[in-house]
Specification:
Helices cover 27% and strands 21% of the residues. The protein has 2 domains: 148 residues, HAD superfamily/HAD-like (Rossmann fold); 98 residues, Hypothetical Protein, Haloacid Dehalogenase-like Hydrolase, Chain: A, domain 2, CATH 3.30.1240.10. The longest helix has 13 residues. α1 packs parallel to α8. By secondary structure, it is of the alpha/beta class. The strands form 3 sheets. The protein has an 8-stranded mixed beta sheet. The chain has a 4-stranded antiparallel beta sheet with strand order 6-9-11-10, with helices on both faces. β1, α1 and β2 form a beta-alpha-beta unit. The chain is built from 8 helices and 14 strands. One of its GO terms (molecular function) is magnesium ion binding. This is Cof-like hydrolase. Pfam families: Hydrolase_3. Keywords: Hydrolase.
């Protein structure tokens, strides 16, 4: 092989498409071919570690940047940094004031905590996400009772979002017209931590993504590949725009650069 590269792939709408998520066969081939060539393959996802590990196991990927850059898995060791507590408290106060349903994750499990059935019922009815997360109801829930928060969710539309002043100081991602996820949005943080551990050079980093939460990962010193189905703001930062994720986009890019045959 040529010089070893270190690949970091977003999951949703980059590696996996549709709902429920499916990995195209061409993407499976490309990932295996990269590994067979001796390259380092990792995911770089906004998903919590618990929601990424089974996906990675299925693909034979052992390396992970998770939780929007706040999580890192190296040699099986999981290290996850929680959200900024004051940031979460501030925005939840505004959710409460404006009667916006919300929930939070308190650990690395598929469980969200909320004060009543309003939030989970809304998510299940509109998005059919009954199996997405389990729910724990905490009556009279007070956000200040929790020191460690890993993710937050709010059920609000685009018009409501525009009226929330506090969101200007919150890192969050919108994957749907119906809800937002309060999460870290700097996957480069986890990548840079790994670079320091493994003494990796900038010119050997390759990142693939599709959405706004990949923007901070599209650093000028790294090789940046945007999927054809990416948002325009990410395409503008890319070194190469490949085909759509469901049109062999990952395999096409890897062959284009000669990383695989």
């Amino acid at each position: 092989m040529g010089k070893r590269k270190y690949f970091f792939f977003d999951i949703d709408n980059t590696i996996a498409i549709g709902f429920p998520r499916v990995v195209p066969e061409s993407t499976r081939r490309a990932i295996k071919a990269l590994q067979d060539k001796g390259h380092y393959v990792s995911i770089a996802t906004g998903r919590m570690h618990v929601m990424a590990k089974d996906f990675c196991q299925d693909l034979g990927i052992n390396n992970m940047v998770t939780d929007g850059g706040n999580g890192l898995v190296v040699d099986g060791k999981v290290d996850i940094e929680p959200l900024d507590r004051d940031m979460v408290i501030s925005i939840v106060d505004e959710f409460e004031e404006k009667n916006i349903p919300w929930s939070i994750c308190l650990d690395d499990t598929r469980m969200w905590y909320t004060k009543d059935r309003t939030f989970p019922d809304a998510m299940e009815k509109i998005l059919r996400l009954k199996s997405y997360m389990d729910t724990t109801i905490v009556e009279n829930m007070n956000i200040r009772d929790y020191d460690t928060i890993y993710k937050g969710f709010a059920y609000l539309n685009l018009e409501e979002e525009a009226r929330l002043e506090g969101l200007k100081n919150v890192t969050y991602t919108r994957y749907s017209d119906h809800y937002i996820i309060i999460e870290p949005d700097d996957k480069s943080k986890g990548i840079k931590k790994l670079m320091k551990i493994m003494d990796i050079k900038d010119e050997d980093i390759v990142v693939f993504g599709d959405n706004t939460n990949d923007i901070k990962m599209f650093r000028p010193e790294w090789t940046k590949i945007a999927m054809g189905n990416s948002v325009d703001s990410l395409k503008d930062l890319a070194d190469f725009v490949t085909k759509d994720a469901d049109d062999d986009g990952i395999e096409y890019a890897c062959k284009h650069f000669g990383w695989i045959d």
